[in-house]
């Protein structure tokens, strides 16, 4: 929703450490900077989801040292390291991949207390086995079961609505 990448970065700057911004801004053009921004954001989100907290968490407490700088599409990397409150976190591993030129995926694997499974069990998978699968909408809903009978009038009413909100005239 920002008018430019620099304006967007100005708004989002407080979510990253100076070191992270140094890496983001070191990219050779704005689009590559935005790409590196999204990579860092995916990493931060993966950690927050893994520990079960929301975005109220101070994101400057976590810092990612991304490695390598460029990710090959479809290849899974585990080299990125995280610091929490300035200390390197050895118990956390971050798996990253690029799905395509515009999408990063990051998964945080850490100490899973109380879940009955040690996270190291994840590494028993075959080393060359694909670890991410791209699913279509049809894949996701194939086993879905409707919770209510189909109501064609409801669907017709839904389809008749405008796609976007209409600005209200403040003078009327």
From TrEMBL:
Alphabetized GO MF terms: holo-[acyl-carrier-protein] synthase activity; magnesium ion binding
Mention any one GO cellular component term assigned to this protein in its UniProt record.
cytosol
Q: What is the enzyme's class at the highest EC level?
A: transferase
Signal peptide residue numbers: none
Keywords assigned by UniProt? Transferase
Question: InterPro entries given for it?
Answer: 4-PPantetheinyl_Trfase_dom, 4-PPantetheinyl_Trfase_dom_sf, P-Pant_transferase_sf
Highest taxon above the source species = Eukaryota
Output one GO BP term. Answer: lysine biosynthetic process via aminoadipic acid
Instruction: Describe the location of the 4'-phosphopantetheinyl transferase domain by residue ranges.
Output: 7-107
Give the reactions, separated by semicolons, that this protein catalyses. apo-[ACP] + acetyl-CoA = acetyl-[ACP] + adenosine 3',5'-bisphosphate + H(+); apo-[ACP] + CoA = holo-[ACP] + adenosine 3',5'-bisphosphate + H(+)
SUPFAM superfamilies in the record: 4'-phosphopantetheinyl transferase
Q: Name one Pfam family in it.
A: ACPS
User: What Enzyme Commission number does this protein have?
Assistant: 2.7.8.7
What is stated as this protein's family in its record? Belongs to the P-Pant transferase superfamily. AcpS family.
Q: What is this protein called?
A: L-aminoadipate-semialdehyde dehydrogenase-phosphopantetheinyl transferase
UniProt organism field: Cathartes aura
